[in-house]
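Hi Y.,

Following your request, here is the sequence exactly as I used it, all 327 residues.
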Amino acid sequence: MSQLRLTLGCGEYDRTRALVNGTVRAEGIDLDWERVDEPHELFVRVLAGEFDVAEMSLSGLTNARARGDEALVGIPVYTSRLFRHSFIFVNTESGIARPQDLVGRRVGVTDYSVSAAVWIRGMLAHDYGVAPGQMRWFLGGLNTPGHVVPLATRRPAGVEMAEIPAGATLGGLLESGELDALVSPGLPEVFKRGSPKVRRLFENYQEVEADYFRRTGVVPIMHMLVVRRATYEAHPWVARSLYDAFCEAKRHCLRAIAETGAPKVTLTWLQAYAENERQIFGDDPWPYGFRANRRTIETLTTYVYEQGLAERLVPAESLFARETLDT
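Below is the corresponding structure, written out as tokens. Let me know if you'd prefer a different format.
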């Protein structure tokens, strides 16, 4: 039987490695994998029409669907999910001690529409009463000068937004005090090198994030799998084949993590971390499928609409291949 050859653009993760190295195969499919380690670069390429199958921003897919772009079809495989309380940074001399202190402040962000920023603004609004329009937003490069290509071009009404000066970086402006705070998909270099001028807003972030999960049942989804609609419509079976294969690759990963006698992950206290996560999240800390994640997906699509990035509320089901909605 001949295999359908499909290009795949994706980052390298422990949960995808078995599929990428050939230990697990998608039935009927020969995947030609290109590793792309910079997510935003990958998403821009996906929106431009590259790849048959790809990792994609959940907010980016939601924004595209809201504006009538049907080129991508979602598969409920979530390549990246992460709590975002720990990605809010403040200048230590700004006087910001709690989320409510962000009102009226200058806040940096690489792309206003990126999933991490959408989740952070939603959490600040719903949990702490701080609306996006109560802050002044500044766009720019996190660690190097420049500006990223936005995943959504719709500018929300009632939100003050400006670009930082050429040659400046968000991290540098935060350290110098020209920005009061920063929300980011990644860690700014000024924080990683231990600048005394920069700290997390939530320094006890693990406790805060565990409480958030207990209250909401949500572990924020950043990235998911998509297939190009032309490929899906020509071969509808690929959606379920890809879903099943990525699930099996994740099972390989979880079995490896469970082998703590000879750790497959370079963490001395891997067993303690694994046991703690099981106590909080159950046996599968990283569930795939639509039904198990419906609440999380609907939360994100609601935030996208509430924040003015989409002119309509996108139904969660409309993002996914119909063959995967029962998963």
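The domain at 4-81+220-253+287-324 is CATH 3.40.190.10 (D-Maltodextrin-Binding Protein; domain 2).

Thanks again,
Q.
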